[in-house]
Amino acid sequence: DNSSTTPLGESITLSRPIVLGFSQLGSESDWRNANSLSIKEAAKEAGIDLLFENAEQSQKKQFEAIRYFIEQKVDVIAIAPVIQSGWDSILNEVQEAGIPVIIVDRVVDIEDISRYVTFIGSDFYEEGRKAGKYLIDKMAGTSDPIGFVELKGTAGSTPSIERGNGFQDTIKQQDKFVMLKSQYADFTHEQGRDVMRSILQEMGSEIKVLYAHNDDMALGAIEAIEEYGLEPGKDIIIISVDGTRKALEKMIEGKINFVVECNPLLGPNLMQVVNEIIEGRTLPKRIVTAESVFTEVTAEREVNNRKY
Ligand code: GZL
User: What does pTM read for this prediction?
Assistant: First the structure.
């Protein structure tokens, strides 16, 4: 059985499975779908009853899901917040209901961080830095101006903000890199393709590099680049983030040059934290997920291991 701590710190004993309400932000990408599957599988493994609500990238729907969890008197609420802002009042409501909160994947910008127990997610700034360092190494031999395009993820989301900052901070040390365009494409394949199509119409021949904040947008952009008549991975160097199977397959075809891994398999970590909260344990405020990078060489070895 499980013991849970009430806001007053007393411990009570649960003689039933723990109930976790999880507000998932959407199903916009392969990464997101792998993340959802990992959480569902891990809940089953752990014997935790999971109430799973998909907000289809709507913060308003996330609020509705969270109010539903409060009504259902779940034991713990986990949230993957679509954007960083706007969370203070809903988290005050959860606090008043006495339900502990775990933030997953992306970050919330709130006044009082005591509103959540811990944040489990990647260091997106570091992911951006890894992408920038690769580009600096790749272009070390030339001093000619290098025009690049950036496809950004969901506006106001932690991965988009931080992957942008990490990348720009790293390459701005060399003024040969010229940002031609930096546009949002919301982490989706379709918007990656459509936004890249219009950028190519405007300045196709000047583009030497594409930095996409996730694989789905990179894969969409590759379609647009090939339609336009250029060779992705050769005429335009392509750098992406996530490390999905589809991206590694494109890398093996030579159409993507570098992929920074962003690990979606947060399920087991999340369930561990849920159990520890119910047991009344104290937790670190931040749990960083382990991740690496992929090059043409490692893609070959890794591609068949990818679960997503
Ligand atoms: C990153 C996650 C991002 C992925 C995208 O942790 O929030 O959202 O990089 C996904 O693929 O859409």
Answer: 0.93
